[in-house]
């Protein structure tokens, strides 16, 4: 369970306005890294065999500002597989391709209240995947990628996520092979979607593209650039490239806010107040619209599959950098301004 005692002593900064200056952000990122570097909670994922070999001591943090300011601390440039964090960006690409209504109707936007790989959730909802951040919804979303072959669909996913990251991302072949050899459950979800008439195409092929997208190799720094693109109305603040529209960013962040940490999404929003997506290799990226993105990487996870240290560090950074979307203070108190009515 999330314990906000880990960061509650930091004064709450409000989310209106801009980030502090570059030097102050840099200092706060370093403080967050050193504060949680001794934290040893959680367990490294092992249901994908090769992930069990990850070094539990790795810990990286990155913040990218919408103005292009960069901040890295610790193992921010250490590569790991993106896993479920890919779902957020593939979803944005699917809305870019098909529009708000169509994707909403096919995939849904509501939390299942159940684990990310739940079969029961699908059965309880007449085969509707409910949202794009659980595996069933992510498989249905990947199926919406354009392309006449699965190789073309995969290339569209890889290119699209690379545009978010501002560099060409590549597959971690070892992670892909390890997951492809053990992903019976995701294949079962694909076939179940198909049995309810909610997936066209060969479920095994769609799940293969999904498995590849999860094995894309990224760093915490990449994740922060990807998230900052969603914070910046769809323009990558490092490359200047427009990747998606501002409307796509808004839709994506809204669904991520309610579903990005699976059945713990309510706890997360209550304690930290930002849309965020986690992955089982230990990454989490949180997006502060109009300000930037914060990414953490540390392999040990809690029992819902979310990185323990990344959650703590992002909780600290949300508070110290004034990112919580729900925090405000009376205008008179922080600016001295007295609201006036027109003469
Ligand atoms: N590839 C993983 C899976 O499908 C992703 C899950 C995750 O990161 N939570 O099981």
TrEMBL record:
PANTHER family registered for this protein in UniProt: GLUTAMINASE (PTHR12544), GLUTAMINASE 1 (PTHR12544:SF48)
Gene Ontology molecular-function annotations: glutaminase activity
Keywords assigned by UniProt, alphabetized: Acetylation, Hydrolase
The gene coding this protein: glsA
Subunit structure of this chain's protein: Homotetramer.
Family indicated by similarity: Belongs to the glutaminase family.
InterPro entries in alphabetical order: Beta-lactam/transpept-like (IPR012338), Glutaminase (IPR015868)
Enzyme class: hydrolase
E.C. number(s) listed in UniProt: 3.5.1.2
Amino-acid positions noted as binding substrate in the UniProt annotation, renumbered to this chain: 84, 135, 179, 186, 210, 262, 280
Catalysis performed (reactions): L-glutamine + H2O = L-glutamate + NH4(+)
Protein name: Glutaminase
UniProt keyword Oxidoreductase present: no
Source organism: Microbacterium luteolum
A Pfam family annotated for this UniProt entry: Glutaminase
Superkingdom of the source species: Bacteria
């Amino acid at each position: 369970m999330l314990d906000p005692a880990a960061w509650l002593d930091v004064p709450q900064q409000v989310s209106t306005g801009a980030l502090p200056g570059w030097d102050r952000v840099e200092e706060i990122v370093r403080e967050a890294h050193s504060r949680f570097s001794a934290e040893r909670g959680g367990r490294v994922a092992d249901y994908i065999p090769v992930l069990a070999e990850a070094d539990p001591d790795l810990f990286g943090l990155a913040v990218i500002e919408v103005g292009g300011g960069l901040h890295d601390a610790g193992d921010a440039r250490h590569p790991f597989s993106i896993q479920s964090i890919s779902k957020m960006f593939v979803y944005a690409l699917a809305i870019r391709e098909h529009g708000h209504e169509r994707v909403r109707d096919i995939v849904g936007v509501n939390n299942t209240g159940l684990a990310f790989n739940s079969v029961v959730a699908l059965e309880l909802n007449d085969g509707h995947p409910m949202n794009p951040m659980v595996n069933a919804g992510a498989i249905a979303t990947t199926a919406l990628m354009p392309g006449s072959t699965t190789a073309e669909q995969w290339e569209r996913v890889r290119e699209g996520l690379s545009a978010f990251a501002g560099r060409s991302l590549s597959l971690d072949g070892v992670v892909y092979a390890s997951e492809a050899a053990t992903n019976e459950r995701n294949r079962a979800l694909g076939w179940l979607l198909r049995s309810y008439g909610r997936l066209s195409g060969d479920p095994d092929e769609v799940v293969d593209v999904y498995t590849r997208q999860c094995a894309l190799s990224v760093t915490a720094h990449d994740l922060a650039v990807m998230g900052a693109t969603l914070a910046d109305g769809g323009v990558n603040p490092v490359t200047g490239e427009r990747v998606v529209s501002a409307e796509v960013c808004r839709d994506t962040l809204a669904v991520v806010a309610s579903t990005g940490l699976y059945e713990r999404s309510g706890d997360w929003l209550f304690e930290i107040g930002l849309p965020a997506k986690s992955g089982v290799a230990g990454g989490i990226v949180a997006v502060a619209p109009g300000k930037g993105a914060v990414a953490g990487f540390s392999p040990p996870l809690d029992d819902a599959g979310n990185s323990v240290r990344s959650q703590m560090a992002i909780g600290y950074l949300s508070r110290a950098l004034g990112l919580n979307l729900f925090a405000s203070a009376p205008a008179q108190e922080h600016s001295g301004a007295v609201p006036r009515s027109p003469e």
